[in-house]
Amino acid sequence: MDNQLTEEIKRAGKDVEVVEEQLGRFKKGFPYLNIDRPAVVGDGLLKLSEKSIDEFILIFENQSKKYNMIKFVPASGAASRMFKRLYAFLEEDESMAEKDDFLKTFFTNIHKFAFSKTLDEKMQESGNSLDSSLKNKEYHKIIKSLLLEDGLNYGNLPKGLLDFHDYKSGVKTPVGEHFTEGENYARGVEGKVRLHFTVSPEHQKLFEEHAAHVRKGFNDFEITFSQQKPETDTIAVNPDNTPFHNSDGSLLFRPAGHGALIENLNDLDHDIVFIKNIDNVVPDHLKLNTIHYKKALAGLLMSVQSKLFGYLNQLERNINELELLEVETFAKKELFLVFKDDYDQLEFSEKVGYLQYLLHRPIRVCGMVENTGEPGGGPFWVKEKDGSLSLQIAETSQIDPDNPEAQKALQNATHFNPVDLVCGIKDMHGKKFDLIKYRDPETGFITSKSKDGKELKALELPGLWNGAMSDWITLFVEVPLSTFNPVKTVNDLLREEHQAG
Asked: Positive or negative CA dihedral for 247, 253, 256, 260?
């Protein structure tokens, strides 16, 4: 690295060694995961019986007040991608509104959106109305009033603050829906519901004001916020892997994807953490299934963790071969751990040490829904260097397109990850794990982006529920598709699941 670049990195306040490593990563890329096979029901993926679900819910309801729990909601994503088609329409002739299927659906059903009343009020401030603009086919005027700064500014707001659901009592945002969810399954020690939102710096004040407003209808809530740490930003490069410079000549550093949020998660000091995306919410009359399964997943975590701590206590004492066999069986049958190749050749004391290492880790229970063609990571068995197998959530981009066996595993995958996790991040002594130690740095991503009309390559850190949790103990559990209702485009809000009725 030349002296000029070193000085530029220092001026940007970045660690030269870290940036040098990032630049090297653009050149060599990331290795593909060594996929062994998909995790399916009966092979790495649990399908709970109704009886088991009831038992785990009972465990949760009996134990929850003893746990310091928090609901962690990544909420920093801008809503602009939701409105991508509407932005493109502003560059097109207005007649497209009556030809394009997406636009026809949007305008025909515009009164079904929870934001339609607010939009109409905003338009009336300038002497228009939503209905008159529709009648006069002034479609651009409607979109501008919805998206642009002198209108509702929805194109620049985060998803969490948009009107999603329309109730008789008023509209609710995703933030409001997470409050209701939290009240129903995240009430832990001291009877408190703790919610934590990761937000963008420019939106934190808006989030704080909105949360304060929503909170008036709820008791015993503790709300906290954090921002993606600037030190996790990664350098951007040109297509030829040379550093990308802004128009003012400075180096461009970009937020490193949701994987950077492992740092935010690592700052929390709680026994159990629920993780769910900001836009995966439904109106109240459809929440029962979500609450039901969240309690079941948490009850399963509590049950397994209790046994795990008991066996770790056993391993710290002088145990005999029969007791060791019991620990091995628990690890294989209940935690789906596949030992390294030479485990059977180890001395007795070495086996004890290996099992202590395997069991002394953070644990996550991940809800998985049946694959319906939605994009996203899925559950797989991955072969590690020591011959062991681990359960991982893998993205399509992590699976070698030129490896027939890996592609076969991808085609045979039956489930995918809706970001529905319940995590145990403390050890048997109540000490929080340093989660950064359980991340696999070899599982990042390189993506194509653009800035000021110029192409660039961006580096994303190992995904929060992918490589950032690579070395956690992982349990995959099937949950119903009804618990997964993301909003990727604005028209998704027209789906029955998002109509409050």
From this structure: negative
